[in-house]
Amino acid sequence: MTTDLLYSMATSVIFLSSTGVVLSVILIFAEKKILNYGPCKISINEGEREYTVQGGSSLLSSLSENEIFIPSACGGRGSCAYCKVKVLEGGGMIGPVEEPFLSPEERKDNIRLSCQVKVRNDLKIEIPKELFSVKRFSGVVEAKEQLTYDIVHLKIKLLEPKEISFVSGQYMQLESEEYKGKEAVIRAYSIASTPSQTDRVDLMVRLVPNGICTTWVFEHLKARQKICLSGPYGEFKLSDTQAPIIGIAGGSGMAPIWSIVNYMIENGIEREMTYFFGALTQRDLFLVDELEEVAKKHPWFNFVPALSNEPEDSGWAGETGLITDVVAKHFPDTSQHEAYLCGSPGMINACLNVLTKGGMPEENIFYDKFA
Ligand SMILES: Cc1cc2nc3c(=O)[nH]c(=O)nc-3n(C[C@H](O)[C@H](O)[C@H](O)COP(=O)(O)OP(=O)(O)OC[C@H]3O[C@@H](n4cnc5c(N)ncnc54)[C@H](O)[C@@H]3O)c2cc1C
Ligand code: FES
Question: Which of 59, 178, 263, 315 could pair with 114 in a Cys bridge, judged by C-beta atoms 3.0 to 4.6 Å apart?
């Protein structure tokens, strides 16, 4: 290939790329400045609530500006699918980001991802009634305690409103602040404290390498700092049956299980429960003494920590191997149990597999995927 040809190809590529960039900038500018959607009315649940908002933002943020908080565990990035609402009128076409998250039934039922629906005109929507009671709180970090090298326990006292009502198993959405060029984001964290402690919420946060919010929590958030969070959200909670429970959670997945166990103790609920705490090595374990103490005092509770990567010569006398194998060993027949799972999507999918193989009906398995 001659130098002239290479030069002309490179020039064309640069020209096309720059044209693309210029066109995108013009489109963004036009969307923001020229296209003025004006005031738009959002009517919720057949007019039970009505708000007039300035068009142009997402439905999710237009609602949150009016103190209606829809679950949005990924902070509006279109990756968690937690922000589904029913859009009866005015939502426009389903966008490409939404498509993979909407089943044929949901499309028929007018379900949309509220973070992807732009308010361009009047809208009629439906949301579950419980979301009217979700609030935005200010709070102060009373303590930030290291549970392991990569998990901290945040003890947060609520300032305004001063009290919260929630169910063990539910989660909050924590708002991080800008740092070192990273944007402020919103992320979901399960509540580790119990509903009886109405003036506070405790969270257990695991550091995700390069994660925006968790790096902020670990490196920038200090004790006595004020923070904002909203909640409570979520359906993950103890059922009101008497079925014996298999709890499986590792790492920060412990948070909602810890809340549920303490809620059971506080309320004298003596349902048989076995909690499998999966970890890599002994340095990933925490609250073990406390959980063993619970098991000693309460015959209905059984605690099984299991390590999958512990060196053979470490002196560890407990269970070893993958948590799924340990669960299957203890409960080859799971048909009479209910299961409560929290943690990474990979761990949960593997557990779903082993529990259903043991005969547990899928509707008896409750989980929160920390995705
Ligand atoms: C309902 C719910 C409850 C949750 N409860 C808790 C909790 O109690 N404690 C807790 O620590 N986390 C919890 N999470 C996860 C939490 O919301 C964040 O996803 C996580 O803290 C990462 O946020 P980040 O901003 O630091 O990372 P991001 O900046 O969002 O992500 C950085 C990178 O890490 C990847 N990543 C994101 N999350 C994880 C993860 N969990 N593990 C591995 N890689 C990841 C992303 O794909 C990305 O590549 C929960 C999630 C949900 C949906
Ligand atoms: S907020 Fe996560 S997909 Fe909409």
Answer: 59
Amino acid at 29: F
Ligand approaching nearest to the C-alpha of 70: 2
Cα gap 130→86, rounded to integer Å: 15
Ligand nearest to the CA of 98: 2
- Are residues 256 and 333 located together in one domain of the fold? yes
First to last CA, the chain: 49
> Does residue 76 line the site of ligand 2, with CB under 6 A?
yes
Instruction: Give the Cα separation of 154 and 201 in Å (integer).
Output: 8
The pLDDT of residue 225 is above 80: yes
Residue-wise pLDDT for 23-36, tens only, equals: 666 655 555 555 67
* Ligand 1 near 208 CB (within 6 A): yes
Block residue for tokens 């191997």? 321
Distance 86 CA to ligand 2 centre (A): 14
Instruction: Provide the residue range defining the domain that includes 75.
Output: 39-131
Is the minimum distance from the CB of 185 to ligand 1 under 6 angstroms?
Answer: yes
The predicted pLDDT at position 74 comes to 87
Based on the domain organization, do 125 and 140 belong to the same domain? Answer: no
Q: Is 181 found in the same domain as 112?
A: no
